[in-house]
């Protein structure tokens, strides 16, 4: 079989292509779920929009105007077709193009998540290494307890705690975290200080603990003893022998947490009234503005799947057994 | 001129953390002294826990897993290396003293090419340039008989076999031209037919490079082939220290004598009876992915006898046991038990069929629930098969403990509180509890020290005589086969290459594979390795 031969000759490529195809299929399945889920939501846009003046005739008119009288399947495919070309339709509430709105808001969300990642990833890896260095001693224990506490608190709670202390009691941070286009970078960073801190606290603990575990398992392996018995310096042993093996699990957990960051941003944006995708989506849900909800849902799912796929692929590439088959 | 290595009154301690008790200091090595001259090989031999690896690592001023060298001196050409600072010790390791670990598969870094790892120490210590080191590695790969030495170094550890890795590790140790190499059980994890090649390669390389070596092993027959002197250790203390000839031919201590005489014949071969208890006819088996692991195997076992199945890892001997138990139903052929066809799949077997065939595993550790006491472990089959409960069950458990020569005091112990040999005994009692007719023993002694293993084998033989038990005994150890078997089946790559009564199966004329297998088993004689290698060379020259 030619397929088997290809698989045997290029196991790495095969695995990566498999992951890509799998991700695409997953995204398609998710698009069905999102569309179906939104369809199944109780309540409808027309009655919410019309409020007191909702007569059966007015509702029917609006439904016809929005094309809701067509069958679900054909609406799904025309929606999917549009989405594939980057056109998510028109918002029912504001009559603006969804894509345009989403574009601006996605930028804001990625800015927030990205800034949180820039702080969280090095901090987590640094703290992980620190706690390995002080393994089972006081600094390790303190880091562990604090990170466990941070993991256990939901992000909205951390958010309100931060607001209470830093914005209300001490008044050193701004709230709400509103940003607008004419804002300078510094001003912008100052505005998002609290939401960033919340996100960092939420993802930090997980990454740090996984980093610690990965390094510890590598450090206790037989080849690290070999390195020591070869008389190599501690620095060389760590950089040359430990790092390449510890990197794969660390990259994996970092990518997974980045995915969580982008999606977890929803709750945090609402808490801090930050004009990102999450806020946009929640607002759209309250008025049953379906095209916006669907677009946001699909984009979140795509980002999540993409980052997970990246994590998988990086882990595959980092494995010498797959890179250099027998 | 001082000795190359001279260890004086070495004392090594460690802190142990027994569960539920305060930590305590234990002595691993107590007052051991030894001398090693340039170019000589000293064998350190003993059971696990004898402190032999710990002594070996002290020559690199290294304590594994929190072991502290608390007394004595380790003199390398007259300098006590224990008094050197961190930097001094670092300069010594990988340059003047090198280490070869038991599991080269774990000791090589999976992320780097073998060649880079082999020359790393020599280059980093500034002993030679990268070019010179590469040349030397190439030379050593050749000396150690590795295939295509020019490209061998480009491979990653997972791309070569276990025996090749062990030789690559030896090349890594030899590369910087060290004065001393510590070999820590370098052939223990290998199959016998591979072991003999690695052993020959190591011996050749030591002679070629005039390096001295500490050779650590639990196998006296192996160390006798390679050493000049031997030190026998037990519980961290020296038992006997002398030349190889004296230790093998005229041991002074009882313990050494026991090691030398381990596994003499225990059982007279019983005659082949016409009525077979277990009959396997033309059985083939394959994994669910279509990979065929057994090809057309036919053999039988008579009641009250022992059938030994020998072969290397991957020969299909454990798979055959899985087929008999029904874990892997055969794709072809039939198994007959007491004249009746045996239901092929485990899930379709009746409780009585299940009861009659029991299993003992290699790792008693993982085969028992660590959260259950001995009472529960042995009691479970009593309840399951015979419905025993309460006082009758306890009485039967005590009876079984007596049969496996353990006192009633063990009844409420957990597996973690038992030694390796005791755990295996409890596993035997659990099998006996079902009143089986056939017990499948899957390498039950290979994880045990020789003398403990001997105790287990004697127990199995005693139980067989008392209860007319039949055993299918899977092993890679020919010495065990010689000691206990009635019938022998030799397996190779999923095929049965030889089957018959022991006296016939283990005597000439041999097929090629059985010949190779039998000749590869180290014998407790001086010069055995040379003789085997000479005959091999003559045979290959004759071809």
TrEMBL record, chain B:
<dbReference type="InterPro" id="IPR013563">
    <property type="entry name" value="Oligopep_ABC_C"/>
</dbReference>
<dbReference type="InterPro" id="IPR050319">
    <property type="entry name" value="ABC_transp_ATP-bind"/>
</dbReference>
<dbReference type="Pfam" id="PF00005">
    <property type="entry name" value="ABC_tran"/>
</dbReference>
<dbReference type="InterPro" id="IPR027417">
    <property type="entry name" value="P-loop_NTPase"/>
</dbReference>
<protein>
    <submittedName>
        <fullName>ABC transporter ATP-binding protein</fullName>
    </submittedName>
</protein>
<keyword id="KW-0067">ATP-binding</keyword>
<dbReference type="InterPro" id="IPR017871">
    <property type="entry name" value="ABC_transporter-like_CS"/>
</dbReference>
<dbReference type="GO" id="GO:0005524">
    <property type="term" value="F:ATP binding"/>
</dbReference>
<keyword id="KW-0547">Nucleotide-binding</keyword>
<comment type="similarity">
    <text>Belongs to the ABC transporter superfamily.</text>
</comment>
<keyword id="KW-0813">Transport</keyword>
<dbReference type="GO" id="GO:0055085">
    <property type="term" value="P:transmembrane transport"/>
</dbReference>
<feature type="domain" description="ABC transporter">
    <location>
        <begin position="7"/>
        <end position="260"/>
    </location>
</feature>
<dbReference type="GO" id="GO:0015833">
    <property type="term" value="P:peptide transport"/>
</dbReference>
<dbReference type="GO" id="GO:0005886">
    <property type="term" value="C:plasma membrane"/>
</dbReference>
<dbReference type="GO" id="GO:0016887">
    <property type="term" value="F:ATP hydrolysis activity"/>
</dbReference>
<feature type="domain" description="ABC transporter">
    <location>
        <begin position="278"/>
        <end position="518"/>
    </location>
</feature>
<dbReference type="InterPro" id="IPR003439">
    <property type="entry name" value="ABC_transporter-like_ATP-bd"/>
</dbReference>
<dbReference type="InterPro" id="IPR003593">
    <property type="entry name" value="AAA+_ATPase"/>
</dbReference>
<dbReference type="Pfam" id="PF08352">
    <property type="entry name" value="oligo_HPY"/>
</dbReference>
């Amino acid at each position: 079989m030619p397929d088997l031969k290809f698989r045997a000759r290029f196991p790495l490529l095969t695995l990566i292509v498999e992951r890509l195809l799998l991700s695409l299929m997953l995204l398609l399945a998710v698009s069905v779920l999102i569309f179906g889920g939104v369809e199944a939501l109780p309540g409808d846009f027309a009655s919410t929009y019309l409020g007191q003046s909702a007569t059966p005739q007015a509702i029917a008119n609006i439904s016809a105007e929005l094309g809701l009288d067509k069958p679900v399947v054909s609406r799904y495919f025309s929606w999917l077709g549009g989405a594939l070309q980057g056109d998510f339709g028109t918002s029912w509430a504001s009559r603006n193009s969804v894509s345009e709105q989403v574009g601006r808001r996605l930028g804001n969300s990625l800015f927030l998540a990205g800034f949180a990642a820039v702080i969280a990833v090095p901090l987590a890896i640094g703290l992980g290494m620190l706690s390995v260095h002080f393994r089972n001693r006081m600094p390790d224990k303190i880091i562990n307890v604090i990170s466990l506490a941070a993991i256990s608190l939901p992000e909205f709670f951390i958010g309100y705690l931060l607001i209470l202390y830093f914005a209300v009691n001490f008044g050193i941070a701004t709230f709400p975290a509103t940003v607008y286009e004419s804002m300078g970078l510094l001003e912008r960073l100052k505005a998002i200080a609290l939401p960033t801190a919340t996100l960092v606290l939420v993802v930090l603990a997980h990454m740090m603990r996984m980093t610690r575990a990965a390094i510890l398992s590598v450090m206790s392996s037989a080849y690290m003893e070999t390195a020591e018995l070869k008389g190599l310096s501690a620095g060389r042993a760590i950089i040359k022998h430990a790092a390449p093996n510890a990197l794969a699990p660390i990259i994996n957990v970092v990518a997974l947490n980045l995915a969580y960051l982008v999606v977890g941003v929803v709750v945090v944006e609402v808490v801090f009234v930050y004009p990102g995708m999450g806020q946009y989506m929640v607002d759209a849900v309250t008025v049953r503005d379906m095209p916006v909800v669907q677009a946001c849902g699909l984009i979140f799912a795509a980002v999540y799947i993409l980052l997970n796929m990246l994590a998988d692929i990086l882990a595959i590439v980092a494995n010498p057994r797959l890179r250099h088959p027998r | 001129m001082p000795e190359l290595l001279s260890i004086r009154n070495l004392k090594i301690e460690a802190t142990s953390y027994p569960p539920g008790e305060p930590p305590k200091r234990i002595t691993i090595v107590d007052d051991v002294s030894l001398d090693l001259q340039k170019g000589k090989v000293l064998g350190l031999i003993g059971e696990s826990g004898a402190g032999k690896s710990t002594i070996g690592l002290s020559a690199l001023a290294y304590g594994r897993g929190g072991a502290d060298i608390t007394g004595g001196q380790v003199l390398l050409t007259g300098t006590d290396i224990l008094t050197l600072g961190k930097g001094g010790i670092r300069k010594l390791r990988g340059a003047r003293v090198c280490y070869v670990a038991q599991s080269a598969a774990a000791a090589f870094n999976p992320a780097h090419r073998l060649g880079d790892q082999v020359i790393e120490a020599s280059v980093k210590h500034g002993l030679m340039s990268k070019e010179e080191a590469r040349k030397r590695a190439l030379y050593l790969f050749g000396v150690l008989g590795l295939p295509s030495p020019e490209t061998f170094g480009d491979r990653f550890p997972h791309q070569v076999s276990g025996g090749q890795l062990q030789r690559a590790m030896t090349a890594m140790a030899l590369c910087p031209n060290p004065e001393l190499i510590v070999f820590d059980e370098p052939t223990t994890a290998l199959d016998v037919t591979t072991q003999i090649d690695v052993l020959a390669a190591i011996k050749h390389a030591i002679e070629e490079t005039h390096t001295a070596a500490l050779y650590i092993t639990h196998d006296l027959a192996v160390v006798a082939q390679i050493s000049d002197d031997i030190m026998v250790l037990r519980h961290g203390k020296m038992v006997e220290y002398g030349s190889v000839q004296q230790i093998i031919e005229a041991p002074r201590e009882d313990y050494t004598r026991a090691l030398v005489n381990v596994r003499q014949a225990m059982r007279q071969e019983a005659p082949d009876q016409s009525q077979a208890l277990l009959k396997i006819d033309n059985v083939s088996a394959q994994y669910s992915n279509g990979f065929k692991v057994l090809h057309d195997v036919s053999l039988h076992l008579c009641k009250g006898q022992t059938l030994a199945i020998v072969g290397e890892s991957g020969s299909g001997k454990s798979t055959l046991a899985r087929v008999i138990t029904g874990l892997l139903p055969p794709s072809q052929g039939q198994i007959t038990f007491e004249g009746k066809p045996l239901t092929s799949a485990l899930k379709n077997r009746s409780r009585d069929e299940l009861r009659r065939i029991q299993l003992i595993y290699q790792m008693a550790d993982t085969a028992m629930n660590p959260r259950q006491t001995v009472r529960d472990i042995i009691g479970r089959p009593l309840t399951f098969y015979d419905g025993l409960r309460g006082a009758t069950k306890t009485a039967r458990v005590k009876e079984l403990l007596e049969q496996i020569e353990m006192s009633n005091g063990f009844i409420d112990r957990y597996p973690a509180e038992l030694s390796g040999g005791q755990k295996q005994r409890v596993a035997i009692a659990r099998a006996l509890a079902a009143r089986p007719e056939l017990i499948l023993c899957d390498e039950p002694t290979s994880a045990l020290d020789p003398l403990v293993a001997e105790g287990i084998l004697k127990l199995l033989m005693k139980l067989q005589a008392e209860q007319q038990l039949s055993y299918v005994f899977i092993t890679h150890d020919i010495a065990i086969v010689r000691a206990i078997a009635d019938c022998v089946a030799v397996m190779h790559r999923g095929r049965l290459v030889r089957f018959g009564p022991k006296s016939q199966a283990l005597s000439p004329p041999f097929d090629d594979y059985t010949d190779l297998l039998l000749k590869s088993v180290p014998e407790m004689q001086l010069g055995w390795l040379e003789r085997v290698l000479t005959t091999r060379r003559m045979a290959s020259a004759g071809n």
